[in-house]
Amino acid sequence: MGWVMAGHGADEHPHGADRLCAAGDRVYSRAVRRGRLQRRDAEPVPCLLELALLHPDPDDMDWLVPTSPQEVMTRLLRGVHDEVSASQRRVGSAVEAFEWYAGLGRQIQTSAGAEGTAIRVLDGLARIQAAMDEATQACTTEVLTVQPGGIRREAELSEGLHRALALRGRGVRMRDLYTHVARHGQGLLNYLELMGDTVEARTLDEVVDRLILFDRTVAFIPANNERTMALELRHPALVAYLGTVFERLWRLAIPLTAPLPDTGIEGISHREQSIAALLAEGHQDAVIAERLGISVRTARAHIARLSETLGATSRTQLGVRIAHAGLDGSPRGTAPAAPVSVPGPESPTAR
């Protein structure tokens, strides 16, 4: 409100006529009571001249006379009116702009149909978390998740714990798919114990990449390797397809409460059987480790034990022994039509 000050006094008295400084208030009040004031008495408060609250006496330039309080009030009210009018004009412009943008939005929806928001890219963890929280709040029936990797870290489990607890409170059922390696993580066991019968978990040798599906209406999948970007999918066909993929994997998976099946081959664990099958497919150690959710070092330790158990002294011989044992998927004790090639630790990946 009021007028903008200019000149050297602005730094010392940054205010308008509607909020005088204490010194200006005293000097102006004295001038109003006495009718005029000597110029030297107003030197400490140059704001009064800059705001036109004092002006020179035409009869004697050494004296200053005050602007009447009534005139000051009129000026202030006029300034307020001007500011309100300007604000109203800005509001009117904003409303017009809003209506224009809303019209464009309707045109896009008309031309693109429901697919306009069917796929949304979420860039950054904050946006991903916000979208996940929104989907959690809207969820009423079920949540399906696929969690790749190995042992679930406490930090990963704690990150989504508030959402899981909110879902449990509303009676939403949850089904989670993990790799077999996750069975060895105490954090996952603690999480499932906390959630009770609200969550059902199963495991597989390997699973697809991360997937979270709410009420068969919205799904989230990674959009880059670092998982700092995600896709929010609401297209009915895409969501239905992902739901079908989950159900197929779920039927193949083993309940977390049940033990892993025995391989039937003494000295070979279920994990080593899975590694043998992947070796027979020609995968490199690093790829095997990634798909099973274990470290490369652990994968190589299992391969070494596998070689020892099967009596293989080289990777080539290991491939033959894997085939004869039926660990490559062929009937046990029969040789494959073509030799099974098992890559060495540094060989390129055959996919």
Automatic annotation (TrEMBL):
Q: Which domain of life is it from?
A: Bacteria
What the entry lists under Pfam families is as follows: GerE
Q: Which Gene3D superfamilies match?
A: Winged helix-like DNA-binding domain superfamily/Winged helix DNA-binding domain
Q: Where is the HTH luxR-type domain?
A: 261-326
Region annotation (Disordered) maps to 325-351
Family matches, as InterPro entries: Sig_transdc_resp-reg_C-effctor, TrmB-like, Tscrpt_reg_LuxR_C, WH-like_DNA-bd_sf
Name used for this protein in its record:
Helix-turn-helix transcriptional regulator
